[in-house]
Fold this protein.
Amino acid sequence: MSRCLLLCLSVLSVCLPNVAAVSSSSVLAIEIGSEWIRVAIASSTHFPEIVLNHQSERKTPAMIYFKENGPLAFGDAAWSALGKYPTRVFPGLRHLLGVPASSPLVEEFLNGSNPDSIFTDYFRDSHAFSFGEGNDEERYTPEDIISMFFKFALSLGRQVDPAISKCVYVVPTYFDSTQKQALREAADLAKLEVIAEIDELTAVAVEYASGRQFSTPEHLLFFGAGAHAISAALIRISSPVKDGSVTSSSPLLIEVLDSRSDERFSAFQFDRLLLNLLVNRADEAFKGRRRGESVRKSSRAMSRLMREVKSIKEVLSTNQIASISLDELIDGLTFTTKVSRQDFETLAADSLRAEVILSPLESIMKDAPVGLSDIAELELFGGSSRIPFVQQTLQQYFNRRLGQHLNTDEAAVTGAAYYAGSISKYPRYRQITILESKPRWKREAFVRPLDTDGRYVAQDRLKDLYKKEERYKMAAQARSNFESRLFQVQDQMSEFESQVGSDSKLAMSVEKVKQVLNQVEDWLSMQTEQTLPETYRRKRDWLDKEVKASVDLWKQMNQPNDEL
């Protein structure tokens, strides 16, 4: 019996290494991408490992489904709900972080989404999302939703280590300081203990360098092509050791000399173009077999076509033609078609141009301290870097074989995990020092609190927090302008009243305006700091219209220069 028990224990120790090995000192690395969420974990006993989701997959679609009754759904569950509940499913919101309401990115998002659930948040000069009506209405900003992705990533990490709370997250290279601030706010909302943030291409450089030796410094170019931008970085990697004996465990010095981005290249737009192509072909194929309504009217059919778009791009990265066949796409009709690589490149001609693809690289090399011949490697990262035209353009520019030593999907999150292990002083990890030629963004502390039930505090209770934000001044200034206008009208009406005399027509007009002013004063007393600037502007226009008749009449009585 004892031998059998020992055998069982030994089998368990072999089959469950992660449970025993990973301690509460583990650190998460999180990448919230435009299309995918990836999570890795670093611990004192293991090198970085990708954390699998509930479907045992290494990445999760960055998509969220707000159920009317029930918990939030992420990833594939959200994909499945997209066809039936398109107004409650939102994909790819990362690029909306920190961008103003007037941004073309917002307009692009609205063109591909149901606008009924989207409204303008004037306090933050951005868009937000609402569900329900009246007391049941729920409002979420992009930061709120991205924080839910962070919480989802944390829940995956806690399947491996229930006590984990620390993390390093990846920041897109093209993000400006406002967007970085919004991403950090989302992490704060998720109550993550952030020990560092790392630039996307810098994380890729860490992953590239982690298993290599650098007896002499090397200059490398890293090129990333993602869903909403292409980016490039010039990075110098070295191992600063005194005695010159460099090993695979020697410290690493990663110096980011420059980085540039170009947002004209948009894989997100590629998806829209391919989707429109499939819709047009389906409408043409079903002409005469349906009542003339476009496939676009069916949310279920559109959801299935959107899934095929992802598959088509993957197939065309290695093949000339992609074939699709969808049984019972709509009204029991089957849709089949073929999309060639030439079709795709024709659709995406505006972005797939050499001058667009090479613009970040050419900008960097124009001011670089080294020439192109001194670059050791040009490494590729990001799903769109697999597009053949992109690789051909880069190959002609570099005039050498492109470096493809990295997993283009996981390099950033794995590099972030290596960096997390390094700054956590885990003995198995190399010491990594990152230097940047440009000053780092310094955030201002702003954390939105949670209510006692774990929900975000209601928007009408955020006045103290809004005062800490620069955009809050928009509302305060709008109220101040309205009050000044009101006082000005009141003074003018007092002057009118004192000089009315026997003119009964003017007296009646002034009395009417006085009643209007009393109504406005009552209305103003009921307004709060949450009243939108647009509301004050509309009320001011109404007030001007109401007093215009009295003002015109007064001007006719020999006082043309006395303006309101």
